[in-house]
Amino acid sequence: MPEQQPSNFSEFDAAAASEALGAEPRTMRDIAHGDGEALDVGDTVLEVYRDAGFARVTTPDARIELYRVPSYNVSSERVVFEQGDQDDRSRLLIRNDGKVSFYPVLRATESSRTPDTALSGRQDSPAPTAPSTNVTGRNDATSNAPEGEKGGEVQQIQLQGRLGRDPWFSTTDDQPVAGFPLAVNNERGQTTWHKVVVFDATATELHKAVSKKQIGKGKLVAVTGQPIVREEPKTNGGVKKSAEFHATVVTPGTKQTKGGTLNGASGAIA
């Protein structure tokens, strides 16, 4: 099935979603949301209540509920729901193998872009580095919220430092993903390591810069983006937390100036 343009949620096509996910739809009725349809994808259950603008995904370990859903998208192997406006959006993705991803869609600020040298690709950022077998928490949980988010607004942060190794490259849900460890020194000479991850066109441009030897191990770069904390369920129970810096802009070869701030601590380039 070819990729479709985003469609109005109130016109949700259960037949198209059924074909994409390989699951037969069945009718549902919820006391709060009225009539709806459900699709069983392995142990994952997707429920859609078009008239109420409500979608729910339930796995053996978690449940995510989306209210006032404006649009959705169906491709050959997944269904994606968008929630929120252009400046504050979340994305819920269900694949035909039952795996689920739920994550914020980050946008770069205008001031964070620089002409010519900035590797700033499409402003949307997709799924985390690798999709979890199951979702990591409810929609109302705060543990996955980006540390730089205040009052519902995404606060872009800039870091400057040197790469600890050449960037790695991969794909997640058919989208390019890349990353590298970044060493940032503070004014006292102390080094803090950050796990930088980039997505989509930014990852593609990073690959071009690495090919041209503009970026690589030991080279100085500036990155603009947002620190987040990811949570994934452990196989033996509990939750594994990992800190990442999701960058929307990567600028190679910057001058040795004062770095940006991360959680109030400034860093200087050595």
Architecture overview:
With 270 residues, the protein is mainly β. The chain folds into two domains: 1-98, no CATH class; 111-270, Nucleic acid-binding proteins (OB fold (Dihydrolipoamide Acetyltransferase, E2P)), CATH 2.40.50.140. Helix content is 7%, strand content 48%. It has two helices and 20 strands. It has helices spanning 14-21, 200-211; strands at residues 7-8, 25-30, 34-41, 44-49, 54-58, 63-66, 71-74, 78-85, 88-95, 100-105, 149-150, 153-154, 157-163, 168-172, 175-185, 191-199, 220-233, 239-252, 258-262, 265-268. The protein has a five-stranded antiparallel beta sheet with strand order 1-7-8-9-10, with helices on one face. A five-stranded antiparallel beta sheet has the order 2-3-4-5-6. Strand 15 (175-185) and strand 16 (191-199) form a beta hairpin. The chain is elongated, with a radius of gyration of 20 Å. It starts with 6 loop residues before the first strand and ends with a strand. The model is unreliable at 107-117, 122-152 and 257-270 (pLDDT under 50).
